[in-house]
Amino acid sequence: MSLHRPASALRALTVAALAAGAVLTAPAADAAPKEAAPALSATPAFLSASQLPPHPTSSWTAGPVTDGFPDELGLCVSTDGVPGHDYRHRRFWTDLDAGAVQLTVVAGTSAQAKALAQHYDDLIRTCADRIEEALPDVEVEGRDYGTLPVEEGARVRGLHTETSWGATDIALLSVGRDGRTVTVVKWGQMGDFRDAPVAAFKKTTRTAVNKLY
Question: Rounded to 5 degrees, what are φ and ψ at 172?
């Protein structure tokens, strides 16, 4: 799946899902316990191109760090129902069909960040069912690749999408947290689970969470 060019099946499915009225809703965050917001020593740092899973035939290019929520996460993760945050993201791409994106969000408290990370992971976990409900011509399989012991924790999942006309995409997604900062990383390309660099993506996720501060 190419996140840099809108040619992949998942990019087309994102548009179709929005057209079909697929709405991602989030639980209210008002119930999160109140606590004093700890001071952060610096702005969260992002992955560099060299820290993405190696591509066998092409190098990665990193775009600038940009304010806002990235469209590339819109298929499974959205801002619907979530209180406003300052979102920042960075896109990555290769010369071929692979692409990636990293999102960082700084919440007001650690408790709010914990709830937000859980919400994002729940959206990714249920993404396959929502796509199939909205798009009958699409078959989607999700896989859970487990948790990672890094800072306040991270989880890695996979998503394979195949259309009735034969387009097939594989994506790996992770959610991690360091204190009151949450990061989401997505990698994708054309292919299936056999093409997914799970071990390398887990390493990328650990680096992403460790690198935040």
Answer: -115, 135
